[in-house]
Amino acid sequence: MKEDALVSVIIPVYNGGQYVKACINMMLNQSYKNLEIIVVDDGSVDNSAAIAQEFPVKLIRHDQNRGLSAARNTGIDAAQGKYIHFMDVDDEINLDYYKALVEAITEMRADIACGGMINETKNYKTWLFKKREVFTDTNDKLKATFVGKWGYVWRYLFSLDFLKQHKLRFEEGRFIEDLMFSLPAVFYAERVVVVPGAEYLYYQRENSIMTRKDEAHRKKRREDHNHTKAYRAAFCKEHNIKIPGLDTGRTAYVLRKVVKWIWK
Hints:
Elements: E1 7-13, H1 17-28, E2 35-42, H2 48-52, E3 58-62, H3 68-78, E4 83-86, E5 92-93, H4 97-107, E6 112-119, E7 133-135, H5 138-145, E8 156-159, H6 160-165, H7 179-188, E9 192-202, H8 215-239, H9 250-262
Parallel strand pairs: 1-2, 1-4, 2-3, 6-9
Antiparallel strand pairs: 4-8, 5-9, 6-8, 7-9
Helix pairs in contact: 7-8
């Protein structure tokens, strides 16, 4: 494959020194080589930035911790690629991840490519594609990606021009921000392609945004979860859409969850 499409990979880091080296090496070992690796150090007080500086990456540092959304927005502003991907520093991807996504999004002339995901702790959320398919109808896009239930933004390779055209940004100051970005992105995309052979392994690490147990953090997480639900409801009402697994097909979703749990 002719590698003429630059992919900007945005890797936010906050006190993630124990993961930085492995994550960057994983990028450098990708079969697709035309990557712009942008590490956004979000006010870390550990050695995250020092480790990143040892590698051929674009390092951007926030003077203070501003949150994941702000770090991702900083990455969007700095990105020079034709396509953009948001990578969490403590997760993993297979070595042909970008090759598979770039081939699909380019050949299918899509705005978004959606890869598969393997959820380490919630097996029913593991979602892998068996064949490449392109979707243009709104309901088909929502059903194929399941974006209204699982908004994880790292599942997608986006056209950067598409994101800028629709002025898509992450809402800052929130713990749960992905769905408010990925749902409108999938909705507005003219073409979405789903891609076999691109697999993202999602871990839930101890003391992460989603697992911290102190009461103040849990309260903030609940508030942001409710904020996201309200956003989703308002977006659906505005655009007259229904969410697969929530508004439609709920029985199939619950059955999938039960079966996956039994066979875990």
